[in-house]
Amino acid sequence: ASGAQVPALVIGTGYGGAVAALRLAQAGVDVHMIEMGMAWDTPGTDGKIFCNTREPDYRSYWLRTRTKAPLNYFLGFPIDRDIPRHTGVLDAEEFGGITVYQGRGVGGGSLVNGGMAVTPKRANFASVLPSVNANEMYDVYYPRANAGLGVGTIDPAWFDSTAYYQYGRVGRKHAQRSNFPFVFVPDVYDWDYMKAEEAGTVPKSALAGEILYGNNHGKKSLQKTYLAQAKATGRVTVSPLHRVTSVAPASGGRYTVTMEQLDTSGNTIATKTVTADRVFFAAGSVGTSKLLVKLKATGVLPNLSGEVSKGWGDNGNVMCGRANHLWDPTGSLQSAIPCCGIDNWAAGGAFAEVAPLPTGIETWASFYLSITNNPHRAQFSWNASANKVELNWQTAWKQPSIDMAKTIFDRINAKEGTIYRTDLFGVYKIWGDHLTYHPLGGAVLNRATDNYGRLTAYPGLYVIDGALIPGNTTVNPFVTITALAERNIEHIIATDL
Ligand code: FAD
């Protein structure tokens, strides 16, 4: 309710926010979480909470009238379609040079992501977060995060036998014939549930193509892990469809948090203020950066560090497809959950996931999302006349990512006598270089904040999400975001409360 006073307010319900809420609540602190997206706890008229990737409806996109599928062409034809404007689960947020995909709703990115739960190689960790004690991370916080998230790995024997991972086996064969290390990638999907899906004893989810617009069954999103545990403490409340617009200093060292309540068409139906002793920014790399940049530029929090806005990166994301020979089909049945990858990080700066193309028909395509060591970093800025935050990423900055991904796929194509697909991202366009799924940075640890996420000019304000990570994690990011949040909140609870 407007006018309320809370000890701890968390902006956003993704990984950083969920960890903060659970650990604060366990330490005896009452927590209020504010989430701009929907609760995603109520089925639609079809009995399902989320819609299928193959049939996007009003639930698919955040306030769009047309879908904006990451893979937006097939056989050279555009596949996007009109949809009613609704507070759907996937946001394709457009900046000048890049579209940034993000989850919207209670659970943040965990609602829409592939669930790939990768701990970076220890040797790479220092390049990611040099000010963080790696011993502590690998002895304590990564194991804690993996346990809290419910991370597991596919049964290799099942991988070898199921029709649903033929595309993965083709990916493995091609990687190994070109002498690239092939790795299984852990995931938070319930692998036993997936086996039961194949057996036909439970409703199909991953095996029915559910992923980008939410999984109705097998994926252990934050709703089933950290947020369920947080709720069970009895100390955590969540307000969905509320968007924070301001955090301003108030008397007594507290903060006034202003928010808009939204209806499912995205209209503001009420404006509310709450007073909080402590505020945790967990709105995601883009959400947290946008808030902090605006609040600094408009004089609400003028003393924020000049490092706020900087160090944003795309985790080097770039996508491509390869056209296989007719004797190398990837299968009309494909699990929507990726489970394997090709590791050429040390030699070529690229880690490529063997990704599904769950169209339901044989495509003879191998599809990949590569994470690359792209050196470019962008900065957010406040455009006062347009009243919005902008990002100066340039599309041409993806070229190093393309070059790094080519260290894998040029070699595989040469070995196999195959070519790139040119029909998946436009008419004769090989590279999906227009997007990222992995926004990182904007309020980097030990630069914009202290070494634990404190915004030191304002005691009681903290950053605890992907904004802390300087643009790249060398692998998929959410395990690192979770582990870093576990580290930071433990220190904050011990020191500041
Ligand atoms: P988020 O999870 O983004 O949570 C932030 C939350 O804050 C959101 O719910 C948002 O709606 C809310 N919010 C934002 N602004 C406001 C505001 N002003 N007021 C109130 N609420 C607000 N990562 C992996 O590791 N493995 C994968 O397989 C993987 N696949 C992905 C696939 C897709 C399609 C996408 C989009 C992402 C994927 N990711 C993956 C990335 C991963 O989901 C993100 O890195 C992660 O969710 C970021 O966590 P976070 O806590 O920083 O923020």
Structural key phrases:
about 500 residues; alpha/beta; seven-stranded mixed beta sheet; six-stranded antiparallel beta sheet; 11 helices; globular; binds flavin-adenine dinucleotide
If you had to describe this structure to a student in words, what would you say it looks like?
The model has no long low-confidence stretch (mean pLDDT 97). The longest helix has 19 residues, at 478-496. With 497 residues, the protein is of the alpha/beta class. The strands form 5 sheets. Strands 1, 2, 8, 9, 10, 11 and 20 form a 7-stranded mixed sheet that branches. A 6-stranded antiparallel sheet has the order 7-13-14-15-12-18. The protein is globular. It is built from 11 helices and 20 strands. It binds flavin-adenine dinucleotide (FAD). Flavin-adenine dinucleotide binds at residues 11-16, 34-37, 101-105, 108-109, 112-116, 212, 243-244, 282-285, 287, 291, 437-438, 465-466, 476-478, 481.
Short recap of the structure:
The chain has 497 residues and is an alpha/beta fold. It contains 11 helices and 20 strands.
Q: Which small compounds were modeled alongside the protein?
A: flavin-adenine dinucleotide
Measured by DSSP, the beta-strand proportion falls in 15-25%
- Round the Cα radius of gyration to an integer and report it: 22 Å
Low-confidence stretches: none
On the 0-100 scale, what is the average pLDDT? 97
What is the multimeric organization of the chains shown?
single chain
Number of β-strand runs: 20
- Which percent bin holds the helix content? 10-25%
Query: What distance lies between the first and last C-alpha atoms, to the nearest angstrom?
Result: 25 Å
Q: Characterize the biggest β-sheet.
A: 7 strands, mixed
* Molecular shape: globular
- Specify the structural class: alpha/beta
Give the count of helical stretches. 11
